[in-house]
Write a structure and sequence with these properties.
Layout: H1 2-12, H2 14-22, H3 27-45, H4 58-79, H5 82-89, H6 92-104, H7 109-127, H8 140-165, H9 173-194, H10 199-203, H11 206-232, H12 235-242, H13 244-256, H14 263-281
Family: Belongs to the EamA transporter family.
InterPro entries: AA-Vitamin_Transporters, EamA_dom, EmrE-like
Protein name: EamA domain-containing protein
Length: about 280
């Protein structure tokens, strides 16, 4: 349930970034500012847990993976077609299965393999429908989605690894690490890809800051739920549950943009939901 709620947050997060981009605040700069605000909010809200914080190479690696994930996700969904970028992003289970095997020594098993196949089959059905065309990235936005998916797989597995390496550290502490990474990666990405010439005018508007702060609060809550869920689930199962984000994005993009879902997209979304539900209901060893 924690991961499903967190995935729902990211399924709609693309829209505020598009609004900010329309107001003149580039997606990379908006994501870095949101990350910085979220890191501060998380640090204040979780200050009583800082005594449990522990340091190892996993911590900066987790922050870097989260920063690349966020930058690729935001760039792709702001500049590309939401559903195509999200579907390329959610090749994540493939990367997660490989990384979990190498880093965590997790076995996928026949049941996990069947659920993974079902989820990926749903993603392929949606990817090949309508105007999506072939599953090969066709623009910089789509490549950003693909790279973000690989980084997201690293983020999932590193979160699980951090829980194993530091069992006494509160999982919520990883929320601060994740958003600090988003801020640190986002600022140089903004200079490289966005340009900041229109940022001062956008930041002079009170509505911009209200939206940034509101997004930061929602993302902190969503990420805290995901981190708690990752603490309790294997990386492969968590990745399957996170595929629910595609369904939320499909519905939100249909309601908020001119994009519409075909019957094949709906069938693909149903496969993804079914895989997530079966994964959550299957008994754990």
């Amino acid at each position: 349930m924690f991961i499903l709620l967190g995935a729902s947050v990211w399924g709609i997060a693309w829209y505020p970034y598009r609004l900010l981009a329309a107001w003149g605040l580039g997606g990379m700069l908006a994501s870095s500012l949101t990350g910085a605000a979220a890191a501060v909010l998380a640090a204040v809200a979780l200050r009583r847990h800082f005594a449990t914080f522990q340091w190892s190479w996993v911590i900066p690696a987790l922050g870097l993976a989260a920063g690349v994930t966020n930058a690729g996700f935001v760039w792709g969904t702001v500049h590309g077609t939401v559903m195509r970028v999200l579907l390329l992003f959610y090749l994540t289970p493939v990367w997660t299965a490989l990384l979990a095997r190498m880093w965590l020594h997790e076995r996928l098993g026949w049941r996990g393999g069947m659920l993974l196949t079902l989820a990926l089959a749903g993603a392929v059905m949606m990817l090949w429908s309508g105007e999506a065309g072939t599953p090969w990235p066709g623009s910089s936005a789509e490549w950003a989605g693909l790279i973000a998916g690989l980084a997201f797989a690293c983020n999932n597995v590193l979160s699980r690894l951090a829980g194993q390496r530091h069992p006494t550290m509160r999982p919520e502490m990883r929320t601060v690490v994740v958003f600090t990474g988003c801020a640190l990666v986002g600022f140089p990405a903004a200079l490289l890809f966005d340009g900041v010439h229109s940022a001062p005018d956008a930041l002079a508007q009170g509505g911009t800051w209200l939206l940034l702060i509101a997004m930061a609060g929602v993302l902190v809550g969503g990420n805290a739920l995901v981190q708690r869920g990752l603490q309790r689930l294997h990386a492969n199962r968590a990745a399957l549950l996170m595929l629910f984000e595609i369904v939320v994005a499909a519905v939100s993009s249909a309601l908020l943009t001119a994009e519409r879902m075909s019957m094949r997209e709906m069938a693909g979304g149903a496969c993804i939901i079914l895989a997530g539900a079966l994964s959550a209901l299957s008994p754990r060893k």
